[in-house]
Amino acid sequence: MSSLLKRIEIPIFLTIVCCLLQVVPYYFYWKPLDDFATREAQWMNLIVATATFIGLISLVQVHGANVQKRSKGWYFSVVTLVCAVSFAIIGLPLPEYGLGSLSYWYLFLYNNGQVALSQAQFSLLAFFMTSGVYRAFRARNLESGLVLGAGILTVCYNAPAIVATYPFFADIRGLLNDIPNLALNRAVTIGAALGAIILAVRTLLGIERGYLRGGGD
Amino acid sequence: MVDTITLIGIYIAVFLTLGLFTILYKENVWFRIAEAIYLGLAVGYGIAFDLKYLRDQWNSPWSKEPMLMVGFALAILVGILWYARFNRSVFYLYRWPLAITVGTGIGMALKTVIFSQFLDQIRPQINLNLWLPNNPWQSLWNILVFLMVPSVLLYFWFTGSGHEWAPMKVVDKFARYTMMLGFGYMFGNAVLGRYSLFIGRAQFLLGITPNPPEAQPAFWVIAAVMLITLIGWDLYKRQKS
Amino acid sequence: MFEVSQINLSDGFVAGRMLGLVGLLLIMLASAYFIYMARKGKVPKIRRIAGIDAIDEAIGRAVEMGRPVMCSHGIAGLTEATTGPQTIAGLGVTAYVAKKCVDVSTRLMIPVRQPNVWPIAADIVETAYRMAGKPQEYKSSDIMFLSTDQFGFTSSYIGILMREKPGANIMVGAYWAESMQLATSGARAGCIQIAGTAAVAQIPYFVLASDYCLIGEEIYAASAYVSGEGEQIASLAGQDFGRLIAVGIMLLGALLNTAGIKMIIDLWRW
Amino acid sequence: MSIFDKLQDIDIRIIYLLAMISVFYPLISPMGLPIKIGAQSTKWYNYLNTIPDGSVVLFSPNFGASSLSELLPMTVATLHHLWSKNVKVVVVAFWADGPIMFRTAKGLAVPESYGKVYGKDYIELGFVPNGETGMNNLGKDVLGTCSVDYVNNRPTRDYDIMKNIKVATDFNLVISIESGTPGFDGWARQWETVYKVKFIVGCVGVSIGGMQPYVNSGQIQALMPGLSPSAEYELLIKKPGLGIASTDAITMSHYLVIAFVIIGNVAYFLSKLGGKKDG
């Protein structure tokens, strides 16, 4: 029995069926099938949401072991575990018991913890950006000169005081936006679509290994 | 005047913000505290979010009909197979929910990419008018777009030996110039976006309305403590070595 | 642009979507044909992709320096239409990197953002160890689930880069705003970096801040390229076939349009 | 090591410190640097001005905490503008944190101060999951997709404002403030194409490249990309807020970026010249 369940053909078959279920009614419409496909897509979202505890399990495996072994910096692991478990409990969707996303403590932790941290982390980009610009923007040859030129002209346009004094930056930026930027975005988008289609072919034929068989056979 | 708990909240927010900022100096204990808290909160948040999603879905639409209820239960059962990964003897069962997820995902991709990312992008290229007698500049811009898009596409040609063909070398060069201009432009725009975010955080730290004014004293106090400890620790270590 | 109507559909083939269907089938069948030919022994030649070739070099450097390797498959899940395929492509590269790292006995760390991708990453690494005959060396704690929160993931990733100082940092998959932070931090930690994504807005940061960059569709080619298998490489010929169609229609269509002939654009009404 | 080599290799922490100063200094003592109202904000302003009385607007905050700094100013300003007009506003988010973000914005542009009444002039319907599928569902059946409201958890159909709002065509305009997916492409596919409902988009600065094709094709009626246009818009509606407060800091930080690029490159060229002389 278990050797039968283990067969790789089962997941490949599931992949193909689910894929065709989404694609076919899009081109060949048949209402019951289309409704079923819509339902299946929602159903799949439930399956994805069920995986949520994998994160916690992995976290406990890594940080629990840290704490147990008292390895270097284990106290940080304690902090992580306590925060994870307490926020998960406070956020349980049980408003009947004063828990959930509209409860006082959830909003307290959300606004002062989650919001502060994610904004702070995101805003660090400004610094990385500045040092990146300073180090990488060198006109070493024609190509890097083009990156530099386009980049610096755009920066000039984006500075309110500069463009207020020298309005022609707006025109230059318009050209950059409408010509090379448009062309690049369009071409890369088309190419990425082709890549995704071919990847689908490989997956449907069962020759794409990465995701399904641990890269082996 | 705000109540004590709100004030504590503000101090926590300022502490966590500055804690993450200290990574700019170097890896240090303040950053690690903030990072550990962030990691924990985010995992907890993810779980709370997914469970809320499941409950909301149950409320509407899955509890409306018996058939749907069965479907919901089945989804949970299949979802539990994810956890088979942690068991050595049945680990392969996790591939079933995975296959359903990947199959559906690829299916949804297949039906839309051909339109939104392929045909709808080709269409405006076909609509280009290369000869506008009244507007020579616009004609020139259109001709540039007309040449740039195909050349970038051809730049990524993978198979065969087309790239060694002499005219292709010109196309490749042109494609690279196009890409470099485009990258520069996108990079320049990102500078503004990223600074906007930092400005927002700075406004919070300085307590500029509508942020709570209590944040400013908290900022100065906590920043001073962090700076002194960081630099002090560095000097102490340098003296010891 | 989207003339496809979604209301009042009647049973049967959907008007306005037929061109898409024809295009899709053409490209897919072409690619299937090339794969079939490859099975018969006719594998097309493939051009070098510098970024992918550099993976071996990067791992080698890490071994020399006695440092671990970090390999990320991006931060997207498996289901979103445009980013799901990128994750699968990233996992293909991860499988290759895992095999290489096991061969040279180097520690491989994989940071994961999506809970449902974690089992795949773990499976990939464990399989690599099993196939090399050393399953006891596999450590599931190196497949690190960091956080579902985008910047929670980022801050932990940066923390690991700074602490563990990996010799190589390989990132192939879908990335968003964190791309710049990860690439800059990797450079600061002294890693040799290979980065690739099909998220257009993020490519410039990878180009500027990493040593080698895979641009757009190169990441889809990557897993086929590293596998070295005829069938997979042949599928790339299908990609080129689609490219040829796109370029041909574009050039011809615009020329005809300029001449006042709207023949090709009418195809979009199918 | 010559001075030019040194200038090419400034300690990264000095760069970070200067970046920090370039933002904090103008925030602490504003300099009142010039600002010019550009085309994008004007277009947005005019577009909202021309909405006829009695229109129904779908307001969709599709972003989370991490983009709040960049998108809050335009959200607040747009709400001020909407409240000042005689239109009905329905708030639906397709991003999980959207409803909380709207609360933050509503606290700064209080509808009640314009005499607006909850349930009659505006309503918050909360979060609709599943991205684009959710948009599609909402378009087909508003009351069925959002059966209860976000604030009181009461049936949506009981509210005055929802009496004549059943499907997408009952809306005159969609305003989407967004930082990613789901966003403009979903609106284009699910609402603009199918129901011909017009929509305008406020986005983070980095998204502008990808949106350009949609603006060119006329699908997006007006675009508000990032913080600088938000500041101009605040000037237009005469409600100076966080956007205006930021402009000096934007300019100063951009000066800094330009300065670093120039220093790096000049030093690079001079050291190359110097290198040639020596060799």
Describe the protein in words.
The complex is a heterotetramer of chains A (217), B (241), C (270) and D (279). With 217 residues, chain A is mainly alpha-helical. Chain A folds into three domains: 9-50, no CATH class; 53-123; 140-204, no CATH class. Chain A has helices at residues 2-5, 9-27, 31-50, 53-69, 74-90, 104-123, 125-136, 142-158, 160-165, 168-204; one strand at 28-29. In chain A, helix 4 (53-69) runs antiparallel to helix 5 (74-90). Chain A starts with a helix and ends in a 13-residue tail after the last helix. The relative contact order of chain A is 0.05. Chain B has a domain at 1-61 and 206-241. In chain B, helix 1 (4-21) packs across helix 7 (215-240). The mean pLDDT of chain B is 91. Chain B has seven helices and no strands. Chain B is extended and about 70 Å long. Chain C is 55% helix and 12% strand. Chain C has a six-stranded parallel sheet with strand order 4-3-2-5-6-7, sandwiched between helices. In chain C, helix 1 (18-39) packs antiparallel against helix 9, helix 3 (84-103) packs parallel to helix 8 (218-227) and helix 5 (150-164) packs parallel to helix 6 (178-188). The radius of gyration of chain C is 21 Å and the shape is globular. Chain D has a six-stranded parallel sheet with strand order 3-2-1-4-5-6, with helices on both faces. Chain D is an alpha/beta fold. Chain D is built from eleven helices and six strands. Chain D folds into two domains: 3-30 and 248-278; 39-240, Rossmann fold (3-Layer(aba) Sandwich), CATH 3.40.50. In chain D, helix 9 links the parallel strand 5 (198-203) and strand 6 (220-225). At the A-B interface, helix 2, helix 3, helix 4, helix 5 and helix 6 of A face helix 1, helix 2, helix 3, helix 4 and helix 5 of B.
